[in-house]
Amino acid sequence: ATPPPLKRLETVQTLAEHGIHAGIFAAPLLPYLTDSYEDLDKLFSSAQQHGARFISASVLRLVPDVKTWFFHVLEQHYPHLLPVYRQLYRAAYPTTRYAQELKKKLADLYTQYEVPDDVPSAAELRTELSEEPDSHQGVEQLSFVF
């Protein structure tokens, strides 16, 4: 029953238009399924077009119970990726090499789109409000993650 991505982006846009500090949390990024530079570029572009003030991304974490289930799903739908994932996920997180490659892709996109990579703290939001006191009158500042 999760809203489709476009509906989520429209919600971010509506919140941003009303002065609410809204952004997206892109997780989990699935190695070799949703982590290509092209896919991430589309995500960043769409987020920016819809007024996202931050984008936070996180790679898939596979704890033992989830790992068993996820590998079963891979075997059914993407059997060619099963050996790759077995090498990649010897622990809960993918290998350091993969993590560094993903981090580089994301760093390039954060720079290109000039968007922060984390949810601002309450203190940062208060500072932002004090710098623009008239632009947020009557609107309680919250961060929403979609």
Provide the descriptors you would attach to this structure in a database record:
single chain, 146 residues, mainly alpha, 3 strands, disordered C terminus
Describe the structure.
This protein is mostly helical and 146 residues long. Helices cover 51% and strands 10% of the residues. It is built from six helices and three strands, in the order H-E-H-E-H-H-H-H-E. It has helices spanning 5-17, 37-49, 64-77, 82-88, 96-113, 122-131; strands spanning 22-29, 55-59, 144-145. It has a three-stranded parallel β-sheet. Helix 2 (37-49) links the parallel strand 1 (22-29) and strand 2. The two termini are 14 Å apart.
Terminal Cα span: 14 Å
Topology, number of strands: 3
The number of helical segments is 6
Helices and strands, in order, run as HEHEHHHHE
Uncertain segments of ≥5 residues (pLDDT<50)?
136-146
Structural class: mainly alpha
Overall spatial form: elongated
Major sheet attributes: 3 strands, parallel
CA gyration radius, whole angstroms: 18 Å
Biggest β-sheet: strands ordered side by side in the sheet: 2-1-3
Question: Fraction of residues in helices?
Answer: 40-55%
Strand residue percentage: 5-15%
**Average pLDDT metric:** 87
